[in-house]
Amino acid sequence: MTYSPKRAMAELRHSISMGARGTSSPMKRDEDSSPLISDTQPVDDDDGRGRHPYKDRDRPFFSHFQSICPSIGDDANSSRISLVVVIVVSLLGLVSILAIVKRVNAPYLCKKDGITLHCPHVKEAPSLWENPYSATTSWKPCAERRLGGFSDLPPENETTGYIFIHAEGGLNQQRIAICNAVAVAKIMNATLILPVLKQDQIWKDQTKFEDIFDVDHFIDYLKDDVRIVRDIPEWFTDKTELFSSIRRTVKNIPKYAPAQFYIDNVLPRIKEKKIMALKPFVDRLGYDNVPQEINRLRCRVNYHALKFLPEIEQMADLLASRMRNRTGSSNPYMALHLRFEKGMVGLSFCDFVGTREEKALMAKYREKEWPRRYKNGTHLWQLALQKRKEGRCPLEPGEVAVILRAMGYPKETQIYVASGQVYGGHNRMAPLRNMFPNLVTKEELATKQELDNFRKHVTSLAALDFLVCLKSDVFVMTHGGNFAKLIIGARRYMGHRLKSIKPDKGLMSKSFGDPYLGWATFAEDVVVTHETRTGLPEETFPNYDLWENPLTPCMCKA
């Protein structure tokens, strides 16, 4: 985590909170205005007394000059002299103010598209809906296909051989696997057989590549980079062998392997067997241990070559349009990726608000699903506290609501929710809905008939959520995962203008646990802490995640 002075100050404030504010009763702390408290409470006006402590607020304007020059009024001569002095000083002050205003509004020279222009001094006001323009103009995407280039790829029968991969997991994990497969094929100068989307054991989804992505565009866009074929060659007759035979499978690929590993260990087997399957193939290619051109190719696949089918794109455009017109006129909207499904809550091994019965049922669920981690359960309470302190627990819907209100988003904000079945149902969602009643899902935006065409493939429904979040004015994640990091990375690649909020869960856990922290102080901490956590340009670092931050390899200085 990079050092942030503002975050450090917020943490320091929390570290002294119990000492500084603990000496007074929580009931007597700063009586700040909070969205959690009804704004209809009686106010002691006291007839206006005490709100204007300055007794001379109604004094005539000339009397202020007497306070500046007490000699006024002593005698006629001195009075006239003093008055002249005051008038001269006032005129000089007025001239100075006009000069400053003129200088502030005066144009200065700047360059745009190589042309020198007169540009006004304009300081952007903070916006809830977009990042400052001045902070988003230094980088531009540059991973697109090179126009006018030529292909130096050998014919299909002259490559080193064929590689075949199973893209496992959900839609976004599959997307990353496809990008990595193209990169590995390039490293070894091999022909890539169109990846198979492996059936997901949780969703029981049997989507094929062509059911979700535009195959023609995928192959054509990458024709100068990698040789890609739709199916296993006809001369290879025993296709089942490629799925099951260990002789045709490379299984020992370590996670985040360097490019050299493939050249030294995988390429010889491909040359020998001509066709090899690589599995498992989740995160089997590193980031900073491969050539930058390979990382740029992965971005080219992710942001340009992998396009959803036209009908998916059109439905997502329709949903986004409905979100922008829910108030009867054009309005911005926020997309919230709420990760609080039962499986996510269980896997996190974090503790959440709930009844004793709820907690007992969750303990049984964890013991059944993850027995090795659960053991006898005695160590889990300390583990849960540590994980929450480190910011590794999913945010609850109520916590998300409080953070968004602290940032300044009003009750009327239109929010698109991308989520599975929230653990705890309506009761768990109630705080979020109470503070932001304009929450909708794709099921509420679209008719049953409109979504029926996509229900046969669960991946298609996930693609709709992905695109509506991608097109939103503000995207908010609540926990990690491939979905969120791919959205944030794509929005960064599109120019950093779109806000992508990544809550600082570690600092927020300290705030939520501080009984002496008033609303105004909490809101200030939230705003200050998240000024730089909105998808702004951020330098990459060793072992960085290319999918969340494509800056260095895939973007160029503007």
Automatic annotation (TrEMBL):
Gene Ontology cellular-component terms for this entry are: membrane
Q: Which GO terms describe its biological process?
A: fucose metabolic process
- Does the record carry Glycoprotein as a key word? yes
Q: In which pathway does it act?
A: Glycan metabolism
Spans of biased composition, class Basic and acidic residues?
48-58
Q: How does it sit in the membrane?
A: Single-pass membrane protein
**What are the transmembrane regions?**
81-101
> Which keywords has UniProt assigned to this entry?
Carbohydrate metabolism, Fucose metabolism, Glycoprotein, Glycosyltransferase, Membrane, Transferase, Transmembrane, Transmembrane helix
CDD domains linked to this entry: O-FucT_plant (cd11299)
Q: Which Gene3D superfamilies match?
A: 3.40.50.11350
Main subcellular location: membrane
By its UniProt entry, which InterPro entries does this protein fall under?
Answer: FucosylTrfase_pln (IPR024709), GDP-Fuc_O-FucTrfase (IPR019378), GT106_glycosyltransferase (IPR052272)
Q: Which cell locations does it reside in?
A: Membrane
User: Which residue intervals make up region (Disordered)?
Assistant: 13-58
**GO molecular function per UniProt:** glycosyltransferase activity
**What family does this belong to?**
Belongs to the glycosyltransferase GT106 family.
Specify the protein name: O-fucosyltransferase family protein
* Species of the source: Prunus dulcis (Almond)
